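Quick question: what would this complex look like in 3D?
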Amino acid sequence: DGGITQSPKYLFRKEGQNVTLSCEQNLNHDAMYWYRQDPGQGLRLIYYSQIVNDFQKGDIAEGYSVSREKKESFPLTVTSAQKNPTAFYLCATGPQGTDTQYFGPGTRLTVL
Amino acid sequence: EDQVTQSPEALRLQEGESSSLNCSYTVSGLRGLFWYRQDPGKGPEFLFTLYSAGEEKEKERLKATLTKKESFLHITAPKPEDSATYLCAVQATGTASKLTFGTGTRLQVTL
């Protein structure tokens, strides 16, 4: 089965705790992205990576960190420095040579 | 700054009642315009990419068109299963990989 997997679907954390969201793909896509979606707002880019061992900040990178050690994986860590972490987090991938991005099913993070 | 405005925010149609969704954009130079469909609690599903004014693309009951300032998503004879939020995004030239999204149009199709 080809696709993008995000786990878990729902995640609850206490304020002040770091949490890592998983994104795995077996589409052999080079580019991977992290967005957050909040009610009434458009998707906003957090981080993206176009190649293994390299990544760039998006528009709202403060309080987040990422790594890209493998082509298939692009985990996102939401740190305690993120002031308003409760949101729907979406991972996307894109094949080389195109601009189209394909999205995973998302992880809903709630910080209590 | 790139901007995308979608209208209306919400649209309610009866089955079979055709309509259009609008996506107006401001961008220094357009590299591509993207339409996605998103069901509640799920990730967006890719529909279309448009690159130049005058371009049109179709998929089942949906047709996307592009001008220099806006894009339309035409829905012909919609069915209840077309109910979803439709998202528009633009990519500017010189901004590799960065999409700017609108807030979406929430479409409800009733029997």
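Answer marked as accepted. Chain B touches chain A at residues 4, 31-32, 34, 36, 41-46, 49, 87, 89, 91, 96-104 (CB under 8 Å).
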